């Protein structure tokens, strides 16, 4: 028992450079800032978060946000300052100016706003708040941040941070998929049914971004996509096996060695990111798809990030140079 405890302590004390957490911080900050800016420019702030006399869509005297109730209710003098605070904190989070403080302020402001009107939210509200909580826990401004510039004189640093917040981001990713998949219990989703869920979802004006009636011509492909999505989500906990075995690659075991040799994380990421890009292209689901993609930034270690960037740079550096178009040494002027 003591040996297992000591291994756990050593595992949780593991440190690494902060590139993945910095990428996650920047993505979450940008997504939240963009979401709030679009709402403000489209005139949705008073419509969704203010009481009926102030231009709201419904009476909000019984607003579910205790913060807003404490401050005086969902009125312009309360909602607009909260909106401005949340937007400013999301920008501060993006640039990495005391990121933990900015994440906490953005979280509290966002929750205060989101709880005002229960008819105006979605499941992405929980994903936003969970992501911000993870950034409260993480040292995400150790690199690629203004805070790093203030501390070291450079925007980038190799300073070591604790790795376990990155692991929690991966756990959030798997929890999101597994819980969503297990809730899809209708005959339109599960094996044995007709796999018609995606087809019918894309015929609903509340979800579809475009007129998708043409999908009737490729209905079998929508069935295939439905089945693949369900199996991907329900089977997502297997990712934790590959992820954990990668962290403990120095320990013995045939299954661990096999999982590290046949690493499925890249395949998982390719399918998941493609799925979310498809959702974003075809459906109106708020920031859900982009936030989900942001979680993937923590799936790979800093060393793997660096190796991937080196390969990318090498691939571009091997690209053939464009042919010269002016006078050259081989063809002098007038020659």
SS field, number of helical segments: 16
H and E order:
HEHHHHHHHEHHHHHHHH
* Mean pLDDT, all residues: 90
Level of helix content?
Answer: 55-70%
So what's the overall shape? globular
Low-pLDDT stretches are 328-335
Can you count the beta strands? 2
Distance between the termini: 86 Å
Rg of Cα set: 24 Å
Q: Outline the biggest β-sheet.
A: 2 strands, antiparallel
The helix-and-strand class reads mainly alpha
Strand order of the largest sheet: 1-2
Number of domains: 2
**Which percent range describes the beta-strand content?**
under 5%
Report on this model:
The protein has about 325 residues and is an all-alpha fold. The protein has two domains: about 15-160, no CATH class; about 165-300, no CATH class. The protein has helices spanning about 1-10, 20-40, 45-50, 65-70, 75-95, 100-115, 125-135, 145-150, 165-185, 195-200, 220-235, 240-245, 255-260, 265-280, 290-295, 300-315, and strands spanning about 15, 160. The protein has a two-stranded antiparallel sheet. α2 packs antiparallel against α5 (about 75-95) and α5 runs antiparallel to α6 (about 100-115). The longest helix has 23 residues, at about 20-40. It is globular and about 65 Å long. The termini are far apart. Residues about 330-335 have low confidence and may be disordered.
